[in-house]
Amino acid sequence: MTNSAPGLSGNQKRKMKSAARLYAVQALFQMEHSSQTTDTVRAEFLEHRFGATYEGEEMLDGDISLFGEVLDLAVSNQASIDQQTDRALVAKWPLGRIDPTLRALFRAAGAELRNADTPPKVVISEYVDVARAFFPESKEPSFVNAVLDHMAREERPKDF
Q: Where are the coiled-coil regions (predicted)?
């Protein structure tokens, strides 16, 4: 469990950021599903998920700073992120009709798009990869790509 990783390679840091994004989506899903608070879910993830071993498989260590930032921004900006997501969805598919995992993903990505530290194309690519992890061999990653592209162009038009 690493907060800042000065001795790690660029590849290790990227993997930790990717893991943090996946964990943020899982945490947001858990919060919606169980009505747990941000602090409760954050503590559980930091203590039991980051770098933990389950059935002989070691979970990736995540970037704690990015995880916390995405979680906090997604929660504090949820209403406006949801409105932005709704604008990106076709009229027949309002956010409430979307799979809860995708809702959590759009909230996490929407939060990260509000922070100018990461280029929007990187945010889109990373969350499309998260969608692939949850929905292998399905159309959801393409759907996620289209929705996030729309959201990114709205949030940060100068980057396109």
A: none
CATH architecture of the domain with residue range 12-155: Orthogonal Bundle (1.10)
Q: What would the pLDDT profile of 107-141 be if each residue is shown by its tens digit?
A: 999 999 998 889 999 999 999 999 999 999 899 99
Q: What are the residue ranges spanned by the domains of the chain? A: 12-155
DSSP secondary structure of the chain: -BS--TTS-HHHHHHHHHHHHHHHHHHHHHHHHH---HHHHHHHHHHHTTT-EETTEEPPP-BHHHHHHHHHHHHHTHHHHHHHHHHHS-TTS-GGGS-HHHHHHHHHHHHHHTSTTS-HHHHHHHHHHHHHHHSTTSSHHHHHHHHHHHHHHHH-GGG-
pLDDT above 70: residue 3: no
What is the CB neighbour count within 10 angstroms for residue 89? Answer: 19
Most confident of 9-23, 24-38, 46-60: 24-38
